[in-house]
Amino acid sequence: xxxxxxxxxxxxxxxxxxxxxxxxxxxxxxxxxxxxxxxxxxxxxxxxxxxxxxxxxxxxxxxxxxxxxxxxxxxxxxxxxxxxxxxxxxxxxxxxxxxxxxxxxxxxxxxxxxxxxxxxxxxxxxxxxxxxxxxxxxxxxxxxxxxxxx
Length: 150
Hints:
CATH topology: AOC barrel-like
Number of strands: 8
Order of helices and strands: HEEEEEEEE
Oligomer: single chain
Structural class: mainly beta
CATH class: Mainly Beta
């Protein structure tokens, strides 16, 4: 696990714990981890998708809403929507990504605010860290999701 991913994970876990600190006793926090293999998917902007393994086994699809340049010409900030579809239901939310186009490395943070099926009423975070080669249109990464279940 990269140092950047560990730093983001520590910060986000602290934020989630503060956010859930006032939660009622009937709420449950669950952590899910696994891998994600992504490929570029045809769409009107930039889209990716592919299988998730591990705790949220299923499919993840991502659609970019905006891309913004940074001070580093190789690094862009992306905003989009992640949707995870599992056998038990779906999760989705706004996604924020920092992506180095030269190395392919990225870190991605999703605020989960919508769920269906077993995930109805779920709130939480999804962090994905890995590489996505913009030329090949493919990547591999790992994820951790921290969800507050109703």
